[in-house]
Design goal:
The structure is a homodimer. Chain A is α/β, with parallel strands linked by helices. Chain A is about 40% helix and about 20% strand.
Amino acid sequence: MIRRRGTLFVVSAPSGAGKTTLCREIRRRLPDVRYSVSCTTRVPRAGEVDGADFRFIAEDEFRVMLEREELAEWATVHGHLYGTPAAPLEAALGQGHDVLLDIDTQGAAQLRARYPEAVLVFIVAPSMAELEQRLRERRSDAESEIARRLARAREEIALWRRYDYLIVNRDVKDAMEHLESIILAERCRTARLGLTFPDLEVTT
Amino acid sequence: MIRRRGTLFVVSAPSGAGKTTLCREIRRRLPDVRYSVSCTTRVPRAGEVDGADFRFIAEDEFRVMLEREELAEWATVHGHLYGTPAAPLEAALGQGHDVLLDIDTQGAAQLRARYPEAVLVFIVAPSMAELEQRLRERRSDAESEIARRLARAREEIALWRRYDYLIVNRDVKDAMEHLESIILAERCRTARLGLTFPDLEVTT
């Protein structure tokens, strides 16, 4: 039997790149991957479920968690606070579960520092024009919000080299297959098996 | 457009681990992966096609290629010579094609030295007992040959840490999915895109 610590998969993408759809689909296709639910002070979007997509909390509550150092990472995005509670994440990894975290570039950098063995995946739309079109089709954002998201996307895309993998999301089915492949492949990496698979237990 | 040098995928396994079946199936599922045909001085097994599975050549001819340094790697396995012609391999990689090489541990070590960026995959049967059973079911080998293959398998399995990935072949479908995932995932690695994808060409 191969036993190992779980692997932390961190997925980042500019808004509109398709990250949320991909992460939702991965949870359906690989139900053994745990999904870390972040806390946020922003208001829910249509269809978002409290406790499933995010834990939607008040800023006061967020500040208390920060003070108590209960967050594995935290960031301010578009004026809202986002954070990942550390305790459930540590517990899942320690029990050998792979965990998927859907998070912005600031959070990803903090997680890399804390978990150097984490696998970082960056998802991009095939072009800025395509990204802008997707943001407009969403119709939930005002013009000034779209401009702000595009400016931030440019900043985030510049950081793609910090990630282990890059998925260009031209087609959801294809991007999905690549994200699933990254998770399956990383499970076969000998470097991850090294500690818990010391002598290749083939029975003789 | 992402343009890059092709990646060399090197697959090794003890006889009976299922490598030949997996490599044949990968060629069907990922037809854009080139398959490097090795030369060998051993006689063809039932069903093996000259020029497709191996180039079956005389020992004299092999020695000439060796003298002319036309081989990227070569090895003696079970008393027979095996080698990979360097020119077609270099050409395919240079043109951006991924190449799959099905090769023993000696050859894999030589290829790692020559191509440090190669991806090495090791495939094992779930146990030595299972491996022995598979060798017996093949029915093409004499008892002494089976004993020799098992002894060699033990030596090869001890080298699994030299490989990037380990696939435990419990089930062909599952092992196939993992091998395919490794190839798809490696195509997304930012380290491989680094040289040819310097500024993430998102058109604005």
